[in-house]
Design brief:
Elements: H1 10-26, H2 36-52, H3 55-59, H4 62-74, H5 83-97, H6 100-109, H7 118-122, H8 127-136, H9 141-154, H10 158-166, H11 169-172, E1 177-178, H12 180-183, H13 186-194, E2 200-201, E3 207-208, H14 213-222, H15 224-231, E4 235-246, E5 249-259, E6 264-274, H16 278-293, E7 303-310, H17 313-321, E8 327-333, E9 337-338, H18 349-359, H19 365-368
Helix pairs in contact: 1-4, 2-5, 4-5, 8-9, 8-10, 14-15
Length: about 375
């Protein structure tokens, strides 16, 4: 005989179903189904009830199917009450209600952005985004909160969110070795640290195994939109090989950006070798020159960002301690490298045309003449 699933008993279970139905009508979700926050608040309440009543622990996985069927019967015009979605409702509640206060303190201590009321932010992003975050941030509410905030801050589409979840943005965010906290004011130093990553992912570039520094820089500029996305929100590209007159000499900074959140110029130098302390002298000179030649009174102090192939974090930190110029040092990673002889091994267009013509029993016109 099939055992009927109930909460405590059949009477209590039926009463709970009716409570959800009344809650639905009271919050007017039927009339405002398009309002995302109302819908998510309703989902949250179902997840909260499931956890509070310990329904899954008591009755097993078949509970969700039973609850889905009964809810759709009572409120048939509500979308999203499938068995799978109800499981996500419970997961959402568990993930985002788990030690919320403690998590907020951790985020602030690590200088990561956090809204005092995380639910206000959570209920402002689409349900599909939340499901992606749940799938990729299991048992890590701090990471989940980070992606909720970033989704709102950057207005990420679902595909953009998934891309950043796949590139370990959370693990890389604000991790550059820097002296920002020592040489900048407290709010400026914290914001400057937040715009950095380590390592930077240059997976969008296509280079040969023996690429040179100029090739790397050329590809970054050729893919400037993707480079800006990787740098993060607020960066505006000002130019490459920026000419700086310093005394009787001309110097050229690799790339110059302006960050609208920091209200300052950012000089970016890219090195294809391991970090060396000497690199700081060159970048520091460019940062100081931009302060003297380009910076206006309304601008904050210029920041330098050195992106190199690799670095020893201890050497980098020791080198920065002797610098009065705000600089961050990060690595970059590439994933698409082709053998140096790759292009030479490919047939030319003429060779392909000749082969096709011969296979058709006819040579190209220029060879018939």
């Amino acid at each position: 005989m099939k055992q009927e699933i109930s909460l405590l008993n059949a009477k209590d279970y039926k009463q709970w179903i009716q409570e959800i139905k009344i809650r639905y009508k009271q919050s007017q979700i039927k009339a405002a189904l398009h309002v995302n926050s109302e819908l998510l608040s309703f989902y949250w309440s179902i997840g909260r009830d499931i956890v509070a009543k310990k329904a899954e622990a008591r009755y097993g996985s078949s509970f969700y199917k039973k609850l889905s069927v009964d809810l759709r019967k009572e409120i048939p015009d509500v979308q999203g009450l499938s068995e799978r979605n109800i499981r996500y409702m419970r997961q959402m509640f568990e993930l985002f209600s788990d030690s919320a206060t403690t998590c907020g303190k951790i985020l602030k201590a690590k200088k990561k952005p956090i809204n005092p009321n995380i639910l206000d932010e959570l209920f402002r992003i689409p349900w599909g985004h939340i499901r992606y975050i749940i799938d990729n941030c299991k048992n890590n509410p701090e990471k989940a909160y980070f992606f909720v905030h970033k989704t709102l801050e950057n207005n990420w589409s679902r595909s953009m969110l998934l891309n950043y979840l796949d590139t370990d943005l959370y693990e890389r965010y604000g991790k550059s070795v820097s002296n920002f906290s020592q040489v900048l004011s407290i709010p400026q130093g914290e914001l400057a640290q937040q715009i950095t990553k380590d390592p930077y992912q240059f997976d969008f570039l296509t280079l040969s195994e023996k690429y040179e520094e100029r090739e790397l820089k050329d590809e970054l500029i050729r893919n400037i939109e993707k480079f800006l996305l990787e740098l993060g929100r607020g960066f505006a590209y000002m130019g490459r090989e920026i000419r700086l007159e310093i005394g009787n000499e001309e110097k050229f900074a690799d790339m110059l950006f302006y960050n609208v959140n920091l209200h300052c110029y950012v000089v970016v130098e890219v090195k294809t070798q391991k970090f060396e302390a000497a690199h700081l002298g060159q970048l520091g000179l460019y940062v100081s020159a931009v302060n003297h030649l380009l910076k206006k009174e309304c601008d904050n102090p210029t920041v330098g960002l050195l992106i190199c192939k690799s670095k020893d974090d201890v050497v980098a930190q020791y080198s920065l301690e002797s610098s009065a110029v705000p600089i961050g040092i990060s690595e970059y990673e590439l994933s698409k490298l082709f053998p140096s002889n790759f292009e030479s091994s490919l047939p030319t267009i003429n060779e392909i045309e000749k082969e096709l013509a011969e296979n058709a029993g006819k040579l190209p016109d220029d060879e018939e003449k």
